[in-house]
Amino acid sequence: MTPDNNTAILILCGSFAGLLIIRFPVALTLALSSLATLVYLKIPVIVVAQQMIQGVNSFSLLAIPFFILTGQLLGEGGLARRIIDFTNVFVGRLVGGLSVVNSIACMLFGGISGSAVADASAIGSVMIPSMIKKGYTPEYAVGVTISSSIQGVLVPPSHNMILYAIAASGIAGGLSIAKLFLAGIMPGIVLLIAMIIVGLIISIKNKYPKGDPVEFRKVPMILVHGMVSLTPVIIILGSIIFGWATATEAGALAAVYAFVLGFFFYRELTAASLWPVMVRTFRTILMVFFLIGASAAFGWIMNYLHLPDIVTQWFLSVSDQKWVILLMINILLLILGGPMDMAPMILILTPVLLPVVMALGMDPVQFGIIILFNAGMGLLTPPVGTVLFVGCAIGKVSIGAGTRAMMPFFLAMIVALLLITFIPAISMWLPGVFQTIVK
C-alpha cells in the first residue's frame, strides 16, 4: 500500500500529542513520533539520526553553552543581591517600593542570565523573603516575582533568541542575532512598565509599605557594585551589535568575565561551588542540544509532508484580515504554552507559523519577539509552568495561590503582547536605528 501524506501527518501529530499527554519527555516525544512517521512512509529510519546530527552541527549554537554558563556563574557569584541593592537606591522609597525593586531587578538580572527560571530563582530567593518580612503577603511576593521574571526571555542576551534564529533560518534565511537582541529591548521595557503599574496599583490598594532608606555613605559602593554586575550584558550586547565579536565569542568572553568577577573579585564563587555549577550547566546543555537535534528531525518530516504550507493555507483561508489571523496565532500560542515548555515550543512552532506571518508581511524579527513572549507566558501556566513552580516553592505557597496572585500581572502581559503584535515599531525601531551597524 502506498503511504498517504494525510495519514502520515495524522501519525506525526497524533503520536506527538499522545506522548505529550502522558507526560513523556519532549525530546523523546519528538524523536519517537518522527520514527513512527518514517516507518509508515517507508523512509530509512537513519534519516532521523542524520537530521539530528545536522540540526546541532551549527557554529551559532556554540553561543548557547557560554550564555548558560555565564548565567550560572553570575547567579552563584552573588550578583542578584547586588543588582537588587542597586535598584533599591533609585526606587526603594516608593509606596510598594520593594515590588518595583523586584520588577526592575528581574529585568536587569534577566538581561544577564537570559533565563526566566534562573531569574525567578536568583531574585526570588532574595526578594520574596524580604518582601514577606516587610509585610507583603507571600502570595503577592511570589506573583510579582514570577511575572517579572518573564522579562528574562525578552531582554537580551537570551539564548532562546538563538534557538529562534536557528529554527527560522530555513525559512527566513540567516537572521541576525544582533537584530533579535535589539528587537527585544523595547518590548522588555513595555513589559517592565506594565509590571510596575500593576504592582503599584496593588501595593497602594493593599497599603504595602515603603522600602527602608539606604544609608548615604553606602550609596557609592552600591552603585559601583551594581554597574560591575551589569558589565556582562554590556560586553555581550556591545561586542555583538558593533561587530567586534560573534555571539559565540561574546558568550565565551562573558563567561570568563563572570568567573573572574565571582571567584577573584567578590569571592562568593568558590572552588567547592564550581562543580555544582558545571553539573547544572552541562545538564542543561545536554537537554537543550538533544531537544534541538530531535526538533530538527521533526521539522524535516514536517517539511517533507508540506505541513507548514498546509497550516499557512488554512490560516489564510479563515480570514483575509491580518489582525484576525495574528490574534488567532497569539491565542494558539498562549494555549500551547501551558503543556509545552519554551524551547520545544520555539523549535517546533517557528517553522509552522513563520510562513503564515511572513505571508501577512510581518518581519521575522518581530515574530521572534512575539513567539518568545508567548512561550515565556507559558512558563507561568500549568501543567508545565516551570517559573510558577519555582516561585511557589521559594515562597512556600500553593500553586493555586501563586496562580491567583499572578493573574493581574498576566492580564497586563496580554495587553503588552497585543501592543507588541500590532505596533511593529515597538520591536523594530531599535534595529532600524542601528541598521547601518548591525548586519
Number of helices: 21
**What's the total count of β strands?**
0
Strand fraction equals: under 5%
Indicate the overall shape.
Answer: globular
Unreliable segments (pLDDT under 50, ≥5 consecutive)?
none
Radius of gyration, in Å, reads 22 Å
Biggest sheet, open or closed, and with what strands and sense? none
Order of helices and strands: HHHHHHHHHHHHHHHHHHHHH
Helix content: over 70%
Strand pairing plus helix content: what structural class?
mainly alpha
What is the terminal separation in angstroms?
50 Å
> What would the average pLDDT be, to the nearest integer?
84
Structure characterization notes:
- By secondary structure, this protein is mainly α.
- The chain has a domain at 58-295 and 392-433.
- Helix content is 79%, strand content 0%.
- The protein is built from 21 helices and no strands.
- Helix 1 (5-21) packs antiparallel against helix 2, helix 11 crosses helix 20 and helix 12 packs antiparallel against helix 13 (247-265).
- The longest helix has 34 residues, at 271-304.
- The N and C termini lie far apart (50 Å).
- The model has no long low-confidence stretch (mean pLDDT 84).
Question: What tags apply to this protein structure?
Answer:
single chain; mainly alpha; 21 helices; globular
Summarize the structure.
The chain is mainly α and 439 residues long.
